[in-house]
Design brief:
heterodimer, A: 152 residues, alpha/beta, Rossmann fold, 4 helices, globular, B: 170 residues, alpha+beta, Rieske Iron-sulfur Protein, 2 domains, 3-stranded antiparallel beta sheet, 2 helices, 11 strands, 19% helix, 31% strand, elongated, iron-sulfur (chain B)
């Protein structure tokens, strides 16, 4: 389910069944022309990816709104902010929290993170079509579904 | 200045023009409410049409297989192409069955023989929901109603599917 009005009314009635939260972690910047297209595309692909991931497992996972941070900001600070999200999420009976990102910088901070970090290699190919889950994205969704299921 | 030349008096002329202009204005005001009132009649249903899902009847076997397709959905000026899926197979009478893969419990996607421990059944990975091959929910597992069945039609040997139709609980 998603963090929206109708899904949250379902959530409140079925809390015991939804034990997993997915948080897409997305860097944002507009200052560097040369990386603008790449970063915006990564954001698009990520949004599309988690949308389809949510569809496959919607009865047991809640897709949180994206955690967006300035690409240039220090992760020492961001880690505190992201962990504050975890503290809030854990006030509900959630068992598993997954952060999904294409930004490799987080990998170094994985140990300090109060959730599971899934770093995926960014899909930069021009061919990635963000209107329909085909080929590589579908493959990636299936594999992450398997990974999440292994935690259940 | 004979009366014959002035068949329309100034007063009449003003009356006519005012009625005319007033009539147009009133009509202008009425058009939108009337259009609104009969709007549902004019609207064509965009999701109710059957869609070619890209599988021919010959390709369908007695083992359920997943087909994915997209439908064009128009919501105001916002056009989207939501993707849909179905599990399609032929039952023992050779009839085509197209089941919605959406678990009736909380909406995960079920898969045929998705768990090795439960052969010949649809399995929901989220809360171990089970369905028989015909989509009937297995009692004792979380789902309380069977999988929805798609409206279907075969045209020139190609399968067309419409909307999923919910069924009553077993």
């Amino acid at each position: 389910m998603k963090w929206n009005k109708s899904d949250m009314s379902t959530y409140i009635k079925a809390k015991e069944y939804i034990d997993t939260v997915i948080v897409p972690v997305i860097p944002f910047q507009t200052s560097k022309d040369e990386e603008l297209i790449k970063d915006a595309h990564a954001q698009e692909v990520m949004t599309f990816f988690v949308h389809h991931l949510e569809k496959e497992l919607s009865g047991r996972i809640m897709l949180a709104p994206s955690y967006v941070y300035l690409k240039s900001s220090e992760l020492d600070e961001e880690i505190k902010r992201i962990n504050a999200w975890v503290d809030d999420i854990q006030s509900q009976p959630f068992q598993h929290i997954f952060f999904i990102t294409y930004d490799p910088k987080w990998k170094k901070y994985e140990k300090e993170m109060k959730g599971n970090l899934l770093w995926l290699p960014a899909l930069q190919s021009e061919e990635i079509d963000v209107t329909e889950p085909r080929g590589i994205i579908r493959e990636q969704v299936n594999q992450v579904v398997e990974l999440i299921r292994s935690f259940w | 200045m004979s009366d014959k030349k002035h068949q329309v008096t100034r007063r009449q002329f003003l009356n006519y023009t005012l009625t005319g202009v007033g009539g147009f204005m009133a009509a202008g005001l009425l058009v939108s409410p009337i259009r609104m009132a009969i709007d549902p009649v004019l609207k064509e249903s965009s999701s109710g049409d059957l869609v070619n899902v890209g599988i021919s009847v010959d390709e369908i076997t007695d083992v359920p297989q997943r087909v994915d397709w997209t439908v064009e959905q128009v919501d105001g000026w916002y056009k989207s192409e939501p993707s849909r899926s179905a599990w399609v197979y032929k039952d023992e009478n050779g009839e085509i069955v197209a089941l919605s893969p959406i678990c009736t419990h909380l909406g995960c996607v079920v898969s045929w023989e998705g768990s090795e421990e439960h052969p010949n059944r649809f399995y929901c990975p989220c809360h171990d929901g089970l369905y028989e091959k015909d989509g009937t929910n297995v009692p004792g597992t979380p789902p309380l109603t069977p999988l929805a069945v798609y409206e279907q039609e075969v045209r020139d040997g190609i399968l067309f599917l419409g909307n999923p139709i919910d069924r009553k609980g077993a």
